[in-house]
Design brief:
Two copies of one chain form a homodimer. In chain A, 48% of the residues lie in helices and 19% in strands. Chain A is α/β, with parallel strands linked by helices and 365 residues long. Chain A has two domains: 17-176, 3-Layer(aba) Sandwich (Rossmann fold); 179-363, Dehydroquinate synthase-like, alpha domain, CATH 1.20.1090.10. In chain A, helix 7 packs antiparallel against helix 8 (220-237) and helix 9 packs across helix 12. Chain A is globular, with a radius of gyration of 21 Å.
Chain lengths: 365, 365
């Protein structure tokens, strides 16, 4: 038997810059021109964002001489499928896109995940850029290169790790963000603060009133920047979610189960907030987290309008069995991310079921 | 505007071993156990290969304690679609596959490309191994990590560069290979010899009779090994087909156009052989290649049963316009890989259309 070693150990350059500011499209366009990542760009967005910003964004790009055209798909999680990905790919082909073309995602998580996925598989990979327009996408999905689409059986089943060439985070887009979307993003930011940056918790507490003034999104710049810095640090250490990146699941083990058991009638941000309340209670019950820390964070969640109680009508056993189904699926035990104190999370895989049940019941009272 | 740099420049380990021999499945199984790439494997194959080898391969794996089950899809290029990829992914999910599972491609190019593609997008990427069963897959598609599926509009439009964890090339599978499939692989091997290894041309000339004895594939071991070494060298230098790897297109510019113009009624290997004949004639006409070298290679192609004439009925203008359509699509000029002498190819982008026409007409006489 002959052996040939194919040597492909290489240093790969996948670093990129994330720019955060307000009304930064002009500067973004100059940076895109300088980046020279593609000869021609396709702006991928959904019908909601297109109605609000499509022509304005397109005009700005074009007025600065950038060759770009727009492809739109129907807004909503229901579009996050392989069928939409294929339809966009066929539209790209029909318009003459090739390996020298690039994509620009303009929108929230669905647009970003889908566009990143298409870019990672179109003609074996073309470059893409992100313009995240929701708070959630700005602090979460636009960092880390996770792309994907749902299958009918489960979410995010097909996808890649594929880093964008640059991310342009413009808080100007937040002006038109619905309140539920603010809450989704805020829950994510609070989570980042809890697991890695107690100072950000202080800042959030100080600025709470200012942040809720949706007409003027300027105060979000330092908050979003700081949340992105936390996410960046974790992603850099654990790009492919093999270890450390799991701490980003703080609040998500229970949160996902609640969200699914409620048949997605509870928005993601609210479910994560409930999940964080659960993780805080568990951390205290297991003797890891001081009462005062738990009370302080729970207090802030409530002040920010995020729920810390699970609806009484939701079946406790249903939630538990959903967590265990996930566990069986991964061939592993349920991992809870718990807290010793703000900034000190750890992964615990051995929480007794009775304590989980007690915690959920406690949150329903 | 704030700037955060996401640092992801890392040395990535994507090297892998390619093993070549006859009846090597036992040793392959031990190497897979040692590799420990996955907890559980799914053998992906098509109905043809499954009928011939499915249960034997499965039994051998299982008799050695390897946890593996089989998923089969209909044989043929028509299966190389996103729909098959999604169907296999759903079957994987239904059988409880997760991020700790791995795929094994058992088959020719379609099985390999499709399995590699599924592995690269299932749950954002799981490991895969290759057991190429056709000569073509053994010397070509199993090296280089090109995965993909076709779209109705064009071939290989969706795909990735994704390296397998190991490739096990067993010439034992060649016993049942149809003659047309031998020709496909042989054309590929001759191409490798022409562009990089004149010594392999000598070896092929010496062994021609032995190689055609399909009952005993042992003589293919050194030939396949040498062809793989050529491919390996090129892929290592140019993993993502940005420059050097283009020389692997020797014979393919014209070959692809002939294949398409004949509506795929001409097998790929024969079309490539015709394309190589065209490239050799062009190289000589342009004063790059000595007559004796052209005559020698043309002689060998004919001796090996590979065609060096284009069917008279095929439209010359049709072939030319197909080459130019590709050119427009890529926003570039037609690239011909030409030859100075065996082992010295170069990419020429400026062949006059009149000379291309004359060459095609010449091949039809």
């Amino acid at each position: 038997m002959n052996r040939i070693k194919i040597n492909l150990d290489k240093k790969i350059s996948r670093s990129y810059d994330l720019y955060i500011g307000k009304d930064i499209q002009d500067r973004a366009t100059l940076l895109i021109a300088r980046g020279n990542w593609a000869k021609r760009y396709f702006l991928i967005t959904d019908t909601n964002v297109s109605d609000l910003y499509g022509s304005r964004v397109l005009d700005t790009f074009r007025s600065m001489g950038m060759p770009v055209e727009m492809i739109t798909f129907p807004a909503g999680e229901a579009s996050k499928t392989i069928h939409t990905a294929v339809a966009v790919a066929e539209e790209l082909l029909g318009r003459g896109a090739d390996r020298t073309s690039g994509l620009i995602a303009l929108g929230g998580g669905v647009v970003g995940d889908l566009t990143g996925f298409i870019a990672s598989i179109f003609m074996r990979g073309i470059p893409y850029l992100q313009f995240p327009t929701t708070l959630m996408a700005q602090v979460d999905s636009s960092i880390g290169g996770k792309t994907g689409v749902d299958l009918p059986m489960a979410k995010n089943m097909l996808g890649t790790f594929c880093q964008p060439k640059a991310v342009f985070t413009d808080v100007g887009f937040l002006k038109t963000l619905p309140v539920a979307e603010y809450m989704n993003g805020l829950a994510e930011i609070v989570k980042c603060a809890i697991i890695d940056d107690p100072g950000l918790l202080d800042l959030l507490e100080e600025q709470a009133v200012l942040l809720m003034n949706v007409g003027e999104p300027e105060p979000w710049v330092p908050i979003v920047t700081r949340a992105c810095e936390i996410k960046k640090k974790i992603v850099e250490i654990d790009e492919k979610e093999q270890g450390l990146r799991r701490i980003l699941n703080f609040g998500h083990t229970l949160g996902h189960a609640v969200e699914a058991e409620a048949d997605y009638a509870i928005p993601h941000g609210e479910a994560v907030s409930m999940g964080m309340a659960g993780a805080l209670n568990l951390s205290e019950k297991l003797g890891h987290l001081p009462v005062s820390d738990r009370e302080r964070i729970m207090g802030f969640l409530q002040k920010a309008g995020l729920p810390v109680r699970i609806p009484g009508g939701l079946s406790t056993e249903g939630v538990i069995s959903r967590m265990q189904r996930d566990k069986k699926k991964e061939g592993k035990v349920v991992h809870f991310v718990l807290l010793r104190r703000p900034g000190m999370p750890f992964v615990n895989g051995g929480v007794p079921e009775s304590l989980i049940r007690e915690t959920i019941e406690g949150l329903k009272r």
